[in-house]
Structures are given as structure tokens and as C-alpha cells.
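Summary for the steering committee. The consortium agreed at its last meeting that each partner would contribute one worked example illustrating the joint modelling workflow. Our contribution is presented below. We chose a case with several input lines so that the handling of multiple components could be demonstrated. No manual editing was applied between input and output; the record is shown as generated.
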Amino acid sequence: MQTTSDEVLIARIAGGDRLAMQVLFARHHVRVYRFVLRLVRNDATAEDLISEVFLDVWRQAGKFEGRSQVSTWMLSIARFKALSVLRRRPEAELDDETAERIEDQSDDPETALAKKDKGAVLRKCLTALSTEHREIIDLVYYHEKSVEEVAGIVGIPEATVKTRMFYARKKLSELLKEQGIDRGWP
Amino acid sequence: MNTKKKEAHSELEELLPWHAAGTLSRSDARRVEDALAHDPELARRYALVRDELGETIHLNETLGAPSARAMEKLFAKIDAEPARRPAVSLNLSARVTEFFAGFSPRTLAFAGGAAVLAILLQAGFIAGVMIKETKTSGYETASAPSTDPGVGAFTLIRFAPQATQDDVTKFLAANKLSIASGPMAGGLYKVRVAVTGLPKAELANIVKKLQEDKVVTFIATTE
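What follows is the complete predicted structure of the assembly.
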């Protein structure tokens, strides 16, 4: 069975087609939500933001020129909106939420290590990265964006994308070492 | 390891996350594959990258999904937006994609085959005419009945975005119409309404009738 491409859906949305909007929303809203949630770390805020993101898609569809994938374009919009929220939010609130999320997800690092669950520790350390490092790791690993696409979404040169990813991974290794896991790199 | 080799090594190491995610170009992927095959340390580091990839996916997949309220909220906002004209100018590639997206793969394969057959027939026809022309020496009139596919009465039609392929097919069949060309700029199709030319008044009446169909958002006469 063939599916309508995102580009065709955007063209239809530009013409005011609500059904096309529903299809695009169903196809992408979970990933956009998760991307935003990892940045803002608040379920309600992330949910509010995705309706804002898709409303922008509805409004701007006629201006979409197809220079990037539709999903890349939507993540750029989502990132802009998430960062606007983060700029308005006090730092202390952010730190509390970070700590909450780390505690909520599963055992503390020591217990997890005792269970020899390296994966759980790795996931905890992924949540403890800075916003900048979390973002690039998610874009590359989860959202499957190329160097060029990440550069477009984040608004940095391609060479910076590669070095930022390298330093994000390096930081991850340091966090793992603090939790007793030495990966022998870097 | 000399400086050049070190630089190449670190450049390839930087590409490992994209290689693991499968988002490198074919040539870069091949370079990384070659390096991995010959460099055990790089291969060990690649295993670390793959662990990160797996756990990042795991972490994101446990984040859950938004509630149905998100969609309700979105469409409430869309409803509050000013009404939009149903048709807008779309870029050429989207129009072409949309046009072909409307057909099943079997239809496309059949259309492709029909196009090849038409080209072969046309080539045969042209060759036949050329051979005939070289043999003919007598007088011939130029007023023979025309078989030119461009002859007839035509309109320009833009179909409603919500119209399905079935709707359009039924509309064309019910009104004995055929698509002559398109899509053109603005999503317009040139549609033949009669195989011979029609008086202006008669063509205007046909346009008026077709305009009432819900699959048509725009219609005008054309040459």
C-alpha cells in the first residue's frame, strides 16, 4: 500500500486541507513531542508546544520550499519554540525537574550498576547531559538526522555539528566514569 | 601514526554516530566500513557508539506520547484561523509528485507501457509517412480529416484538494471528458470536452454545468 509523501501532505495543507493536516499530525506528533519533551522536560509544556508547532506548520505550509525534509523543518520549528520556553523559565525550576526525571525513571546509578545494567546507567547519564548535548545526541541517534540536517535544525556549521557530537559523547563517557563505568574512551 | 593518518582517523571517528544511524552518504559509509575492517581500536569505539544509539532509542521510546488533547487543541486553533482559499500555488515537484501519487503502482506501470507503445506506434507512423512521401509523385489535397490530438474543445480545470482519484475518474467518465495535459502551474489540467471545436456559447454552457460539480474548484475555457 502506498502512502502519501510528507511533501504532498504539506502541499494539500497549504490549500487548507484539514484531513492532510490530521495525517501529518498522526505521522509525526509523537516524535516531535519527544524531541520537545527532552528539551523542556515537562509533559504539559511539551504537549502545549506540539499544538503550537503544528499550528505553525498549518500557517506556513504555503511557504515550505522543499529544501529539507518535512520532519527536519518541523523539528526546527519545535526547537525554536522549546528554546523560547526555556529562556523564559528560571534555572532553578529546570534543575529540580532534571533531578526529578532522573529519580523517576528507575533505580539510582549505584543500584542499577549493582544489577550490572549498563544500559540503565547509560540512559541515566543521557538524561543528565546539558540541553545542547542532549539535543544533538537525540537528533543524530533517535531522529536519524544527517550532519547537514542537524546543521539546518540547530543553525550551526556542519563541522561544528561533528565536534559538538564528539564532545557530547565525551561528556557522556565522563558521566559514565563517575558512575563507575570506564569505557576506555576518550 | 603520521599527522595525515591521524587527521583521517579522527575525521572517520567523528562520523561513527552517523554511520551507526545509517545517515551517511554511500561514499562516506564505504570509507568508514573500510577503516572499521582494518582498525580494531576504531571498531571497539564503534561498538560504544552502537550502545549509545540503542540506549538513546530506548530512552526516547519510554517517553510516552501526548494525550488526545494535543490534537483537539490544535484543531480548535485551526478552526479559529481565518478561512483559507482552497487552492494555492504549489511548487512544481510537489504538483508532479501529487499527480503521480494519485495512481496505483499497477496503473503507473500500465501507463508507462501504454506510453512506450504509443511512442513506438508514432515512430512507425512517421517512418511510414516518410517512406510514402518519397514514393508519391502526384498531386494531393491538404484538406483530409484531421487526427491531431490537439483538435477539439478544451477547458482548464483545477480539482478540489480533497477530491480522490475515484471522484475525478467518475467525474471525467460521467461528463465524457479526458485529460489532455497537466498538471500545469497552479495545479491546472487541460481537459478535452469535445473531439471537435464547439461554438463559444455551447462551450460556456458546458463550463457552467461542470463548475457545479464538487470536484471542480476552478474551470475556464482554453484553446
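Chain A is about 75% helix and 0% strand. Residues 95-104 of chain A have pLDDT under 50 and may be disordered.
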